[in-house]
């Protein structure tokens, strides 16, 4: 309740910021995408996780203003990185199902692209499976609107929600991000890694059939890099490569060249 009250002022008092986590192409080693993640730093309580404050923002309706701010920051940043650091990859932004269900959402995305000068193909929006399945018609209309704009859609935390293979086939989705729990199991002595291998193989098989890109999330070790590459994932993201970084650190990484995959 205290946090709910405090969050009202987070945006206007400049307490929100974005951090950025690189996503690498497993074949070329290129930093193909960068995921933007919001952070809240409270003057007294310190860093508060988005896992805590995003649900607060969703309940209070502030998610609309926060989401707009995040999208705008991310788009301007990506445009800046093209001009000043020669990086022409995709910026990926998490979108709450509450934002997505607004009839004005597609138009807001369009305006933000115009305002920032970012080409639509350099923006990807991440949605969770739950968001897609909740309000099918609104979501379908929004997805088709975004497709017309040229904005890509990725399904976040894939494999943990109420998976329906039909929506992957029927909706304009370009990418799936395999939830990090599957990647974790690849190296886990507790859970049998052969199940993780089988499941990731199956997910990649579906993605190939439907012509979707696959990102492995939560990659923390060289063994996991080798495993997900061997299993046919296209991209990987995780602490092995980089933690979410502030803009200055991300720029240093852009200027320092590519990691050794
Ligand atoms: O960054 P971190 O691992 O703490 O993220 C925790 C959760 O918060 C993740 O599920 C992530 O997708 C979500 N999240 C991070 N940034 C944003 C954002 O800008 N908008 C929304 N809706 N969710 C976000
Ligand atoms: O739900 P979503 O996939 O958007 O969550 C992103 C969150 O995952 C971010 O908060 C980020 O801090 C976290 N994350 C990114 N890479 C790793 C990783 O390698 N290991 C773990 N445990 N978390 C990660
Ligand atoms: Mn995400
Ligand atoms: Na993710």
UniProtKB/TrEMBL annotation:
Residues 1-258 form the EAL domain. It comes from the Bacteria. This is Diguanylate cyclase (GGDEF)-like protein. The chain holds residues 375 to 635 of 644 of the full protein.
